[in-house]
Write a structure and sequence with these properties.
Blueprint lengths: L8 E4 L3 E7 L16 E5 L1 H11 L4 E8 L2 H12 L7 E4 L4 E7 L5 E6 L10 H9 L2 E4 L5 H10 L3 E4 L8 H4 L4 E5 H8 L12 E5 L4 E6 L5 E4 L11 H13 L10 H18 L12 H12 L1
Parallel strand pairs: 1-4, 1-8, 2-6, 4-5, 8-9, 9-10, 10-11
Antiparallel strand pairs: 2-3, 6-7, 11-12, 12-13
Helix pairs in contact: 1-7, 7-8, 8-9
């Protein structure tokens, strides 16, 4: 079933229940460490990004596959409460995806994902129509590559957050308008020289953690956006918050105007601020900030 109103942003992606284990340090290979109290909450790269986009102010729809189980109910409630349109979310007899996340005392994390129902996600005819009409479509790599490929080919402006890191085909990247990657992912796709990404995509944002991000656009000088210094509690979903807010901010550009380097710089700044707010709280979806908090902090940092 299609949404009643065409969304500004469509997220095609994963949804997981997160099992979070606080540890003094992330275990090395072969090492066992003791954890504090485990918490359970909604997450997954797609779900996190959908919530971030909706909370940042964009009319957002989510294309995903959830199991018919309590984890699926947990995710549906969290997404709905954040204003995400779920009319394109399908139900599966396969259990909802699960992520096991260790978070150390410095806020760094290590994540293992069991895809579950995410592995069955395809684009229905309704979803494909909505993807084709949306201003911005954003996807990641926790779902089948074929589904990502179809979304990219169908959309008018496609953002790929190429995470988890993977080698990507030229066929897929030919349909990518904006690539968002961290340093590890950038190296896997373009090699040690990040400017080489522009041989494969027209524009890219390379996130640098607390150091901010770099914007690369064909025919333009590299633009560095410094990080926003904060005390880190938990980095889980920081990258997803960045991507969701980036998509939401770009969706505000007039549908008749092309997205310019200036538009992209503004969007990266806002996304950077949002990510800095998210790392100051624990959890995935619970840590995603709302638009008023993002804009207030943006004014402090940039205006």
């Amino acid at each position: 079933m299609e949404p009643d109103v065409v969304p500004e942003v469509v997220i095609v992606g994963s949804a997981n229940v997160d099992l979070v284990l606080p540890v003094q340090r992330i275990p090395r290979p072969g090492e066992t460490v003791l954890s504090g109290e485990m918490t359970r909450g909604p997450g997954g790269k797609g779900a996190n990004q959908a919530v971030a986009s909706a909370r940042a102010g964009a009319r957002t729809a989510f294309v995903a596959s959830l199991g018919v189980d309590d984890a699926g109910d947990l995710l549906r409630d969290a997404l709905s409460d954040s204003g995400v349109d779920l009319s394109l979310v399908t139900s599966s007899t396969t259990p909802t995806g699960t992520a096991i996340i260790t978070v150390d005392d410095s806020g760094e994390n290590s994540i293992v994902v069991a895809p579950g129902a995410n592995g069955e996600l395809t684009l229905s005819e309704d979803a494909a129509r909505v993807v084709g009409r949306a201003k911005i479509v954003l996807s990641q790599l926790e779902i089948p590559f074929a589904t990502v490929q179809e979304a990219a080919a169908t959309s008018s402006y496609f953002i790929l957050n190429a995470a988890p890191a993977a080698e990507l085909s030229d066929e897929l990247l030919a349909d990518v308008d904006l690539l968002v990657v961290n340093e590890t992912e950038a190296e896997m796709i373009g090699g040690s020289d990040r400017s080489a990404l522009l041989k494969r995509v027209p524009a890219a944002v390379v996130t640098l953690g607390g150091a901010g991000a770099v914007i690369l656009t064909r025919g333009e000088d590299e633009i560095a956006v410094p990080g926003v210094p904060v005390d880190v509690v938990d980095t889980t979903a920081a990258g997803d918050t960045f991507c969701g807010v980036l998509a939401a901010t770009l969706s505000a550009v007039s549908a008749t105007d092309p997205i310019t380097p200036s538009d992209l710089t503004n969007a990266v700044r806002r996304a950077n601020v949002a990510a800095s707010l998210s790392v100051q709280a624990a959890g995935a979806i619970p840590s995603v900030p709302h638009g008023d908090a993002i804009d207030a902090r943006y004014a402090e940092v940039y205006l």
